[in-house]
Amino acid sequence: MAYDEGTLGWWMDQRRGELELTWDQVAERARLSTQTLYEAAAGKRNLRTVNRRKVERALRWDTRSIDAILRGGVPVPADPDLDDDEMIPRDKTEEMIVTHESSTRAQKLRALRDYRRQVAAAKKALQERSNNPPKEQSG
């Protein structure tokens, strides 16, 4: 589909092409349906804020780039030094971290890494406990 230049759909399509992604791949990265992306691109659906952040991550744009486009501005590509695959949330807590409005992308990445370290440490501690159950005390 051809989009009018400067519209959200046009910018999404341009960026998708730059990243050599299909609409299905963008949808998968954003954890949204392809239909939702099509409707947003065509201006038939307003994305909720959380979904805007998901699309921005999928297209490797800085936070609030979609807001800028909708106000007539341009999107800002994300810092290429940040590993975008690492920014893909794995659970609801991570979803909250990566969609937090007032955090920068670097802050979100640090928070994700800290959270993942804590989860890994907790899993390790549980594993160690299950391998070494406490001894029963005789009374």
Tell me about this structure.
- Keywords: Coiled coil.
- It comes from Haloechinothrix aidingensis.
- Residues 105-132 form a coiled coil.
- The mean pLDDT is 86.
- The protein folds into two domains: 1-78, 434 Repressor (Amino-terminal Domain) (Orthogonal Bundle); 79-131, no CATH class.
- Helix 2 packs across helix 3 and helix 2 (23-30) packs across helix 4 (49-58).
- The chain has helices at 8-18, 23-30, 34-41, 49-58, 65-70, 92-98, 105-131.
- The protein is built from seven helices and no strands.
Q: Helical amount among residues, as a percent range?
A: 55-70%
Please, what is the CATH homologous superfamily of the largest domain? lambda repressor-like DNA-binding domains
Instruction: Tell me the number of strands.
Output: 0
* Averaged pLDDT: 86
What does the radius of gyration come to?
Answer: 20 Å
Category by helix and strand content: mainly alpha
Q: Poorly predicted ranges (pLDDT <50, ≥5 residues)?
A: none
Shape, per Cα inertia axes: elongated
String of helices and strands: HHHHHHH
As for the CATH topology of the largest domain, it is 434 Repressor (Amino-terminal Domain)
CATH architecture assignment name of the largest domain? Orthogonal Bundle
**Total number of helices:** 7
Alpha-carbon distance between the termini? 77 Å
Classified by CATH, the class of the largest domain is Mainly Alpha
Strand % is: under 5%
